[in-house]
Design goal:
four-stranded antiparallel sheet, 190 residues, Secreted protein, alpha+beta, 8 strands
Length: 190
Amino acid sequence: MRSLGRVTASAVLAVLMLLGGAVAATADEPDADPADLADLLPVTTEVEVGPQLPADLPALTSLAVAKGGAQTVSPMATGCWTQRWTWRPRSAAGTVLYTFYHVGYWCASGTRVTAARVASAGGETRTPGWQYRGIVDRGAGVVSNQGRSFTQHKFTLRAGGIEVQSRLQCARVRGAASGGSSSDGTCGIY
C-alpha cells in the first residue's frame, strides 16, 4: 500500500507540472516519499548580472566622463550605483525551480567606498510545489573598501500537504569604488 501512495503522489505532481498549475496543499497523501521528488530539487544555479546603473547626479557625471574615455566606468567613480543580480536554481532536468534577486546600492568618492544598502530584493517560484516565503535576513555595510549588501531568501517545497524541503538562499553584492560590482552566495557582509 505504501508503494501505491508514492506512485500516486508522483503521478499527481507530474500532471501538475505538465499543466503548469498550482499544487494544492492537502494532507491526502501523508506517505509521499521525498526521494520521488528528486526532479524538483535544485542541482545547479544560473546567475545573471543586470546593468550597472548610476543612482545619482555625481554617478551620471562619472559615467559621462568614462564614456568620453571609452570605458565602462571611470576608475575614480564618484556617486552612488546600483546593480541587479539574479539567481535561478535549476533541477537535474534543467527546469527553473524558483528565482531570487538582489539589487545592491553603494556609493563611492574617488577611490573610497562610503556607503552601502539593499536597494531591492525579492523572489518567485516557477515550479508547482515550490513556495517563496520571503526575505528572512538582510544587511549592508562597507567592508574592505567594498559596499556589501546581502539578503537571505526562504523557499519551501510541499507535496501532499507536507513540507518536503526548505531552502535558504543567500545573495550578496559587493560594489567597488570603480562603480562595478560582483556577487556571491554569502549570507553576511563579512
